[in-house]
Write a structure and sequence with these properties.
homodimer, about 350 residues, alpha/beta, Isopropylmalate Dehydrogenase, 2 domains, 7-stranded mixed sheet, 5-stranded mixed sheet, 11 helices
């Protein structure tokens, strides 16, 4: 199993990408193919005391800045570590790809260079978000790749999310929910009404509309919505959790008595923090692309990169894409049945 | 000052509406006009030992169910406590109106019976949400009245929210933020791009795009968005907060030591809970309607109704609607200037 890693993507590249790659080689026995400036990679590895055994390097002279136009990935940044990684992926030089670089450039690059799975309308970001009920986590798709969506896209997000959560997270018959303003079938706008109809007929365990207040309690295993709404869910979950954590820390720091209290619940709080740590689940899959592609968080550290590499390897090994293709074929078959 | 209260709206009506009305009369010296079945109101008041001095009753024989078609408010439920209340409002029999009944029926009823402020495209729900930074609260508009919005509507939400937060909450020059997937001006879809352009020129303190992760930290005083997105923000904030509270309670209940720790931080937690209690800020204003209209939470108790009545009275007394009309006039004038 060979995972391609964009060595220059993310706020902490290339130190943390190189360290994460080395950790993944050692822990999982995978080969990692780093893309980026070869000289810098070798120098940083030496400086950090990281051995490069099990790691290959493919030289890429530039790095695409986060603020660059997404489409520049096939133009002035065609030789960037991100673009070169995607080219290696499509050429079969690696089984899966990981980057913590620009999300927009990744969507454009993966779509144009690697291409989508046949029949898939749009690729979408699908992070796995920790929650306190259900299976302890849920996939949110799309979390921001597509601001505007059509009903068929949401239905396909359901099929892709179902295959992923089943294969990678081991959840049998994952519950697919449609994010909406109410649970009744008649709720929402044209997008939700159309998606509801399609999801009912799709080969997934569709549980109907899900109100956002139920998401943190694990009401479904895959929550589908347009990318604008998904981005709100992703970022607001992060924000409210952070605001709560900040306030509670403040309460514990008030005086000697409360500081003692903090010691008593330290373990419980630590476990809760670990349970809510998104980096435990790796990065966000870019589902819909013809080869396994993972977007790691921009602020990823070595551990997060290691986890994302493991996730990418599972993505390839467990043939999630084959499973998605099966789901699409089922829909095609049932549509043909209806015509007959 | 006379506030009309739908005595039969909400899960706890009419017991809690009647109690809340009596509390408001006593505490704020307002007159409350209750709409609903007169016989039942009198009987319940007697049973509960609530005096009806300062309270008037206008008989309305039916109650519109939450599940009824919204448009039924002008048809089979034209004699409901909600519809009768709105008619009294438009006839000037009261200065403001409060209901905890059906949101959909309220939007339709208020729009058709009371009508919108001249020039306002759509009315929207505008709850005030507690947060941990900034001014400790922000207005979210629209939180669910309009699934689909146009840029001009979002700009008007900004004007209305600005007037409200200034007059009712005493925030001078409120910061208006546009909820978006990134802070850069180029972010979002057609709706956000269009709204950004209009808000820049509007007579409000527009601070640009706001990412949802910054909302709980009080990044702006009024957050504007379409009703679908706003409903997600409202319900997800509630859900994540509840999930956190549940987990932390669990951590404190683990053993004797953690239960002792709970005692030490009890006051701090209690204050935080009060700070985060949405009922402290009353209900959601239905901004855009030509007369002050408040939607109280469906699960309101007497205290929440009392607060909503106080809020409705301030809404009328401080002439928020006059302030909104001024804002609209400014835009009209500056548009005429541009033409000249």
């Amino acid at each position: 199993m060979k995972v391609i890693l964009d060595a220059f993507g993310g706020d902490n590249a290339p130190v943390e990408t190189i360290k994460g790659a080395a950790m993944a080689v050692q822990e999982y026995g995978v080969t990692v193919l780093l893309t980026g400036d070869e000289e810098i990679i070798k120098r940083v590895a030496k400086e950090q005391g990281v051995t490069l055994s099990g790691i290959e390097i493919v030289h890429a002279p530039t790095v695409i800045p986060v603020c660059a136009e997404s489409t520049s990935i096939t133009k002035e940044y065609a030789d960037s570590s991100l673009a070169v990684g995607l080219k290696l992926l499509v050429e079969g030089k690696g089984d899966a790809f990981v980057t913590a670089g620009s999300s927009g450039a990744l969507v454009v690059g993966a779509t144009l260079i690697v291409k989508r799975i046949k029949g898939i309308k749009r690729a979408g970001f699908a992070p796995v978000i920790p929650c306190v009920g259900g299976n302890g986590k849920y996939m949110l798709m799309d979390s921001g790749a597509n601001i505007d969506c059509r009903p068929e896209m949401l239905m396909q997000f359901g099929i892709m999310g179902s295959a992923y959560m089943n294969k990678i997270m081991g959840i049998s018959n994952p519950k697919i929910g449609l994010i909406n303003v109410g649970v009744e079938e008649s709720k929402g706008g044209e997008l939700q009404l159309g998606a509801y109809e399609l999801l009912k007929k799709a080969p997934v365990n569709f549980t109907g509309n899900v109100e956002p207040r139920e998401l943190p309690f694990g009401a479904c295993d895959v929550a589908v919505c347009d990318g604008f709404s998904g981005n709100i869910v992703l970022k607001l979950t992060e924000g409210v959790a952070k605001a709560f954590t900040t306030q509670i820390k403040g309460i514990f720091m008030q005086n000697f008595k409360t500081k003692l209290a903090a010691l008593a619940v330290k373990n419980g709080m630590k476990n809760f923090k670990k349970q809510m740590d998104y980096t435990e689940h790796g990065g966000a899959a870019l589902l819909g692309i013809a080869k396994p592609t993972i977007k790691a968080h921009g602020s990823s550290n070595a551990k997060a990169f290691k986890n994302a590499i493991r996730q990418a390897a599972s993505f390839a090994q467990l043939d999630v894409i084959g499973e998605i293709e099966k789901g699409l074929q089922e829909i095609k078959n049932s549509a043909q049945e209806t015509v007959k």
